[in-house]
Amino acid sequence: MSGARPRMRERAVRSLALLALYMLDARSASDSTEIRAWCQAADGLDIADDDVVSPSASRMDDRWREVDRAVVALVSADRDEAFDLALGAHRDRRRADADSTEHAPHWPAHRQPAMDRAILRLGHYELAQARADRRIVINEAVEFAKRYCSDRSPGFINAILDHVARDLASAPGDATDATNDGTPTPASQGDSA
After folding, report:
1. What beta strand segments (E) does 101-170 contain?
2. How far is CA 110 from the centre of its chain?
């Protein structure tokens, strides 16, 4: 997606990663080759078509159409990045689920709707890896929840990921440091998963 705004590219990569993570959770990691191929198949992504009825057709607006078009326009390397992000989040799911359960003990992962769980896992992984500013990660997760989930999900996801971000920023020996505004930043090149 050369020449695209960097923020839109990141949003498109994250959007494709979320869908791939949802499929990894539903189909299992043993189908990862097929899911990676799906990520690479631009013609298999009909989400940019204005006539497609999405799970949130009543909430579809120009902003999401722009994101959907950006997903379709992703180049192969961006699609690989999205799949790798999804796979990393899938591999780190036990840690994400444990941290979510710590902050919402009455809503462990097995009780959460599948898309809520995928959004939390992706957000957790991005926060743990310090891939982007925590405010961006949390905001994008909330926007995904508004698009794909129930009316109560955005607040739930926001609260959980905010707690996780604070925990990660204050954890001693973690792969993140807190900046003056509390935003996690990479402290080392090591893998914290």
Report:
1. none
2. 18
The predicted model gives 113-137 an average pLDDT of: 94
Q: How many CB atoms lie within 10 A of CB 98?
A: 12
Instruction: Tell me the angle at which helices 76-91 and 32-40 cross, rounded to the nearest 10 degrees.
Output: 150
Between 113 and 185, where is the model more confident? 113
At 89, the amino acid letter reads A
Cα gap 5→152, rounded to integer Å: 31
| Domain extent listing, the chain | 1-87, 92-193
* pLDDT tens digits along 3-62: 457 788 898 999 999 999 999 988 877 788 898 888 888 544 555 444 444 454 444 566
Which H or E run includes 49?
Answer: none
Spacing of C-alpha 116 from chain mean position: 10
The 8-class DSSP code of residue 50 comes to T
Domain 92-193 in CATH 3.90.1010.10? The answer is: no
- In this structure, what token pair is assigned to residue 131? 């891939």
Could you tell me the pTM of the whole model? 0.79
Sign of CA dihedral 34, 36, 42, 47: positive
Query: Hey, what's the torsion of the CAs at 179, 184, 189, 191, to 10 degrees?
Result: 150
